Every structure is written in C-alpha cells, then in structure tokens.
Amino acid sequence: MQITSTAKALALSALFLSLSACVIVSPPTNEDTLTDTDLIRAAEQKESAPTEGAQQWVIGYHHGIAVVKSFQCSDLCPQNTLRVIYYDVPTDATCESIGGVTKSILVPIAITVMPKDYCFPAVIADYWESYP
To answer: 89 in helix, strand or coil?
Structure first.
C-alpha cells in the first residue's frame, strides 16, 4: 500500500505535536498545603527541641511559598534552642513581595545571641514572641 505525501505530512505533524507536548512543560508550582489556621496551629504547638545541632525542613506551602520550621541551637542543645517558622523567600523576590513580614530575631550562636532577619508569614508575625 502506497502512502501519499499528504498522509506522510499529517503523520509527521502529529508526531512533532506529540513530541513538543512532551518537551513543553509548565513551570513547577507549589500547591498550597498550609492554611492560615495551620500556620497558627504550628506556631502554637509545643514540641521538644532536638538534642544536637540546628535542624530545619519544609513543612508545607502557603500562598505558593515554602514554609520552613527551623530549630536554631548553640552549644547548649536543647536548653538554648530557638524554633522559628518562616517563609523560604525565593531568590528573585523580597519578603514583602510574597506577603511576608521581616522581623529580626535573636538566635543562639555559641555562648551569645545574634540578630537574624526572618520572613514570617503575616498571620503569625505579629504574635511571634508569644508562641512557645
């Protein structure tokens, strides 16, 4: 059976379309997994501090931005451990542009403390000092 040039062109076009669909990928999106209520609950939660070293991990996404829970510890873990929940600000953004609030928090370093700026989700920023 002889294939006409029109059929060949149609088959080739279909192949290119399917291949281009595989190549064109939408940019990754961070599906929201945390609500304002979830953030408040996480901030209010009492939890034991790690016994050694600083630890941090992403606990979810709020308005498309990664939210990090971090335990900052100095030489006296877990006695001098600070827990902070904050936005992981993308390199091409500022805290304010993603809806966060920049606050300077004293973090333990060796036998002292030093101020460090964090980008807090607005829903927990105003009351951060009152959380455990």
So the answer is: coil
SS3 7: helix
Torsion of CA 101, 102, 107, 109, to 10 degrees: 150
Helix ranges restricted to H, 4-111: 5-23, 36-44
Is residue 114 classed exposed, middle or buried when 0-12, 13-18 and 19+ CB atoms within 10 A define those classes? exposed
Reduced to 3 states (helix: H, G, I; strand: E, B; else coil), residue 69 is: strand
* Residue 120 phi, psi dihedral angles, 5° rounding: -90, 145
- Where are the domains positioned within the chain? 36-130
pTM over 0.90: no
pLDDT in tens, 78-104: 777 888 999 999 999 999 999 999 999
Residues 6+ apart with CB under 8 A from 32: 60, 61, 62, 63, 64
